[in-house]
Write a structure and sequence with these properties.
Layout lengths: L1 H11 L20 H11 L4 E4 L4 H5 L5 E3 H16 L8 E5 L4 H12 L3 E4 L6 H11 L3 E5 L7 H11 L5 E5 L8 E2 H7 L15 E5 L5 E5 L1 H15 L6 E4 L6 H14 L2 E4 L5 H9 L4 E6 L3 H7 L7 E7 L2 E2 L10 E7 L3 E6 L5 H6 L11 E4 L4 E5 L5 E5 L2 E3 L7 E10 L2 E7 L1
Parallel strand pairs: 1-11, 3-4, 3-5, 5-6, 6-7, 10-11, 10-12, 12-13, 13-15
Antiparallel strand pairs: 1-2, 8-9, 9-19, 14-22, 15-16, 17-18, 18-21, 19-20, 21-22
Keywords: Ligase
InterPro entries: AMP-dep_synth/lig_dom (IPR000873), ANL_N_sf (IPR042099)
GO molecular function, one term: ligase activity
Length: 427
């Protein structure tokens, strides 16, 4: 997995047409998701990158499109040119408040390539919570939908901008783009990007939000995201050209890592289903080709009844702590569990000798190639260390490291029974 990130760095530098070779001792620049997309587009331009949910027109007013890696890079490069035309200061926080559609993935990489800091915001948040997020991250621009079912996210964010003056630009994909909002469909038509240079910019990282009552922004750089993603790819055994069908929104570690990040790091295809529809999902899972399903853990009983596991290469059940692990069916082949601890870290394991209940019971077993280490604090809380947990809280735009001897304590402890973790609970 780390080799994929290294390949992306080579493509973003020495392999670019006309680029000067980097000095032998030059430190590697932080690269993000755009570099991963570009690396695959260079080698496999006709491979499918993104597939929209078939019934997308019914709830978004936009066509369902199948995107190759080359086409995705072209459109993302045009969006990048449009964002640069706003002349925001470098590394400006730019919100991305969208459902998991292809346009959202392209916009995320465009923000990154334009030299800004993507801030991933759930599109389901109400106006009060959006205002809190904008203030906490000090957003200067935001990208969203004009329409999402009966909802009008762009209108809601215009009201947020009226209450938070530093938020200067609201941009949206149509239809129903309000007056005063930048129409991104027109941006794509009017701008000509540079696909050959796409992915070469230094990534500022990305921001997700934690906190039950008040959203708190958490900063993670590209290397930390890659490390967390590698932890998921290893047990899931996702290979280039495979297909990932995700039911989770890419707005936090829970949805971003096993979805978009896993697809780009492995060279797989991502098919997102932001609006659950059983008929659409059944049709997607019935298509030929090695397929991996990413689903919330609570869906396991229903999916077991439907008998979909036999048709899939793997199912990744994602659990947000606190969670009870004793209700899972043990020993099911092809099942991977991912337990997410706020926006700090995640632990992934196949349901075999590396099951998450065993890994968490003996934290020293979870030292995955140095990417993540876990220990139990004297008060029983779990703490994390390593590249996969390298995240820092942002306070008024300043990253604040809250580690103790490089360990990041969580707010969770575990319940053990006969040497197996049966639950993860708040300490």
């Amino acid at each position: 997995m780390v080799a994929a990130q290294q390949a992306a760095r080579r493509d973003a530098g020495a392999l670019r047409p006309g680029a000067e070779p980097e000095p032998a001792r030059a430190p590697a620049r932080p690269l993000g998701l755009a570099a991963l997309l570009a690396a695959t587009a260079d080698r496999h331009p006709d491979r499918i990158a993104f597939v929209d949910q078939p019934d997308k027109p019914a709830w978004s007013g936009r066509p369902a499109i199948t995107w190759t890696f080359a086409a995705a890079r072209e459109i993302a490069a045009r969006l990048t040119a449009g964002l640069r035309a706003l002349r925001l200061p470098p590394r400006s926080p730019v919100g991305l408040c969208m459902a998991g559609v292809a346009e959202s993935h392209l916009a995320l990489m465009a923000i990154e390539q334009a030299g800004h800091l993507p801030c991933l915001i759930p599109v389901t948040w109400d106006e009060a919570r959006l205002l809190q997020a904008a203030e906490a991250a000090q957003l200067q621009a935001v990208i969203t939908h004009g329409q999402l079912g009966a909802d009008r996210p762009a209108e809601r964010l215009c009201r947020v901008a009226a209450r938070y003056f530093p938020l200067r630009f609201v941009a949206a994909f149509g239809p129903h783009v309000p007056d005063g909002v930048i129409g991104l469909d027109r941006v794509v038509l009017d701008h000509r990007g540079d696909p050959a240079a796409f992915g070469s910019a230094e990534a500022a990282g990305l921001v997700t939000f934690t906190g039950e009552e008040t959203p708190r922004p958490v900063l993670r750089d590209g290397d930390a995201l890659t490390a967390a993603t590698a932890l998921c790819l290893a047990p899931a055994r996702i290979e280039p050209g495979d297909r990932i069908v995700s039911l989770l929104p890419p707005t936090d570690l829970r949805g971003l890592v096993p979805g978009l990040a896993a697809a780009l790091l492995s060279g797989a295809t991502l098919e997102s289903h932001p609006v659950f529809d059983s008929v659409s999902l059944s049709a997607a899972l019935a298509r030929e080709g090695p397929t991996h399903l990413v689903a919330p853990g609570w869906m396991e009983p229903g999916l077991a009844q439907a008998g979909v596991a036999a048709r899939l290469r793997s199912i990744l059940f994602v659990h947000r702590a606190p969670v009870r692990l004793s209700a899972r069916t043990p020993g099911r082949p092809g099942i991977v569990d991912i337990v997410v601890f706020d926006e700090t870290a995640l632990v992934a394991g196949r349901r075999d000798a590396n099951d998450v209940a065993l890994l968490l019971a003996s934290p020293e077993r979870a030292a995955s190639g140095g990417l993540l280490r876990i220990r139990r604090e004297p008060d029983g809380r779990l703490a994390f260390r390593g590249p996969a947990s390298a995240a820092r809280l942002l306070h008024r735009g300043i990253a604040r490291d809250e580690t103790v001897d490089d360990w990041r304590p969580s707010r969770f402890s575990t319940t053990l029974l006969a040497g197996v973790v049966t639950a993860v609970a708040e300490a």
